[in-house]
Amino acid sequence: MDLGKLKDDQKLDLCRWYFRGGFAFLPFLWAINAVWFFWEAFRRNPFEEQKLIRRYVILSAIGVAIWAAGLTTWIIIFQTNRAEWGEFADKISFTIPQGIP
Amino acid sequence: MQRLNSLLYFLAFVLFLFAGAEATRTKDRIYAQIEGTAACFRRLNGTHQFGCSSRRTGNVGVLQLLKEPADVTWLTKEAPDDTYMAIVHSNMFNEQTLRALKDSPKVGGVVLLRSDTEENNLASYSPEDSCPNRYSGLSSFEKQLCSDSKPWNPKGSSLLQVDWGFPIFYVHSDTSIKNITDCYVKHNSEREGMTTRSLCAMEMQAFMIAAKDSETCFRRSNMINNLNPMRFCDPMGDRNVWATLFARDASEQEKSVIVLAARLDTTSMFEGEAPGAVSTVAGLVTALATYSLLSEMKTELSPARSGGNVMLMLFNGEAYDYIGSSRLVYDMSNGMFPPKWSNVPSLNISKIRMMIELNQLSQINQSTGAVAPMYLHKTLDNPDIAKFIQSMKSQQADLNLNLLDSTATSIPPVSLQSFVKADANFPGVAITDYDQSFTNKFYHSVLDDVKLLKFKYSNGTAPPSDSIQAYLANLSTALGRSIYELIAQKPYTGTTKVEPTQMNELLHCYLNSLNCSLFHSATNDDFTLPEYPPPLYVGVSNSLNAVTGLSGRLIALLTGAETNSSKEECKLNESDVVRCP
């Protein structure tokens, strides 16, 4: 979709829905939102909806940062302890590695 | 258009060029497939993993022939490349070399080159533990029956109990050995300038998906985490083979069955290469021939037997913590042997009068070269055992045997241990070629083969009187007559005996080729019997070793009675051990 062809109120709608959608454990929506509307929120000359768009963009960025930190921490903990955890680790795995403990 | 045309011409030219050349794929110009190999593979127990595995994509390294210990030092310390594939001939394939290679990060794999025709002139090589089955039978983690200072298998290097971390292959085809050696000599033998010229390298693939221990592996095999569940490993196991001389019924008394036992399996480091000539086959064929002799004596024995019976029992999986015998004892103690559905009365340990087990047997002492004596290891003293030993010894002069009482203070690592573990007063005798420690210096290795047993198949002629065939035939005769005497309470006066020619055929089947006259007679025509000797590794329980079923059919052939049934009737039940007319 080309943002340039949308009116400003439609942009706000879109940004708002991406922000709301992210709460359904979809941090990628927030990541897209933050990047996609960054120009609209911070670079463009002020317009009526910009304040709200900026708010959603900042919140989306914070959300995705928290997700990223959380996921990274979990992946490091899981990967370093997987072999040691034994049965528990196998149970929460989707694919079990082959040939290694 | 002009340009397109010239491009087409060019393409046609290129195609023509390729078509004119040899139609070989680039891959085939770089790589040569190595045939006639056997891989070392991974096994698990309750706590550890053993054996070998490559990386998933295979291990690649520069070929390096190790001719002497100095080459090992050079490879581990000075060699310039990152990864090497160590090639060794059997004289260097020993504990010292392998452990040095295991500790070096430069070794990506090991290849053992040994031609099928190569003479065995090694002093010893046994990859088995010095105390076989150290933690099972009468031994346990807390209580050891075998001591490291005076072990049963003094040549044992425990190489089977090592987790190597790289693949090890056994190459036995002459062409492959030549290919590997030639490539090495042509490209790699000169150590000068190794870093600047092209070298000959090898890729080995033997990726094992099992890991850690059996518990982990079974758990992972039984988990369904996604739509593509996977089997990581299989439990080891096969079937025991047994038969009784007389039909068993409800009138069977306590202490009435004499069990004649031998093992049916052996092991080695390499898949499909487990000949076990001395460790397994010699005892196995002796048990089969003895049982066949007893079946010939059946008509004379029948009126005098007063309820006595003989059971032939071939245990499978004994190399791995007595899989076969421990399962049998377990089933016996739970009244599950024979299985309830067979409608045969169950056989408890208490019904066994005594067990006679044939373990490792060889004619020639490997250290001295002289005719080896046989040792009788008894579990306890009782009148039956005394009578059996006395009866055996009374025949030794006639049958050219040399039987001695064992001086060992404990029971050797044989199946009897499983029975004594369940019943401390279990009467049994193990007949072996060793006294206090194995004389077999190649126990559980690829070298425990037909050459070690000194068996030469005499096709069409009678085997010489000093051959292994004659020796084991005489032992079978002595055993058959002694068992007869135990059951009938009187000496055997007939002349029936085991002929060396029968032993010749039996040994030929188990040591030279499955496609032999006995297995041929024991199977239907639609059976394809391969030309190689049967590998006697116990394998996994859901894929039975061919030799298990063949041994069962062989027993039926040697001892069975003919019935009047038509070809159609006999074809009805495929699982029956029946040879159709």
Automatic annotation (TrEMBL), chain A:
Q: Does the keyword Membrane apply?
A: yes
Report the family membership: Belongs to the PEN-2 family.
* Cellular-component GO terms for this entry: gamma-secretase complex
Topology in membrane: Multi-pass membrane protein
Q: Do you know which Pfam families this protein is assigned to?
A: PEN-2 (PF10251)
Q: Could you provide one GO biological process annotation from this protein's UniProt record?
A: Notch signaling pathway
Q: InterPro entries this protein is in?
A: Gamma_Secretase_Asp_P_PEN2
Where does it live in the cell? Membrane
Q: Does the keyword Lyase apply?
A: no
**Which positions, given as ranges, span the membrane?**
17-36, 56-77
Protein name as annotated: Gamma-secretase subunit PEN-2
Q: Which UniProt keywords apply?
A: Membrane, Notch signaling pathway, Transmembrane, Transmembrane helix
From TrEMBL, chain B:
Q: Please state what the protein is called.
A: Nicastrin
* Gene Ontology cellular component terms for the protein in this record: plasma membrane
What's in the keyword line of the UniProt record? Glycoprotein, Membrane, Notch signaling pathway, Signal, Transmembrane, Transmembrane helix
Q: Where in the cell is it found?
A: Membrane
Tell me the first and last residues of the signal peptide: 1-23
Q: Which residues form the Nicastrin small lobe domain?
A: 39-210
Any one biological process term the GO annotation gives: protein processing
Species the sequence originates in: Cloeon dipterum
Question: According to Swiss-Prot or TrEMBL, what is its membrane topology?
Answer: Single-pass type I membrane protein
* Top-level division of the source organism's lineage: Eukaryota
Query: What broad class describes the main subcellular location of this protein?
Result: membrane
Q: Which Gene3D superfamilies match?
A: Zn peptidases
State the family it belongs to.
Belongs to the nicastrin family.
Q: Does the keyword Transmembrane apply?
A: yes
Keyword Methyltransferase tagged = no
